[in-house]
Amino acid sequence: MKIGKIPEAVLKRSVFNQINNRRPEILLGASVGEDCAAISVEPDEMLVMSADPVTGTVQDIGALSVQITVNDLASAGAEPVGIMLTVLLPESVSEKKLALMMRQVEDACEKANIQVMGGHTEVTRAVNQPVISVAGIGKVRKGKLISTAGARPGMDIIITKWIGIEGTAILAKEKETELLTHFTQAFIDRAKGFDQWLSVLPEARIAAAGGVSAMHDVTEGGIYGALWEMAEASGTGLEIDLKKIPVKQETIEICEFFDINPYELISSGSMLMAASDGNRIVRELEKQGIHAVVAGRATKGNDRILYTNSEQRFLEPPKTDELYKAVL
Question: Is 0.85 topped by the overall pTM?
Answer without folding.
Answer: yes
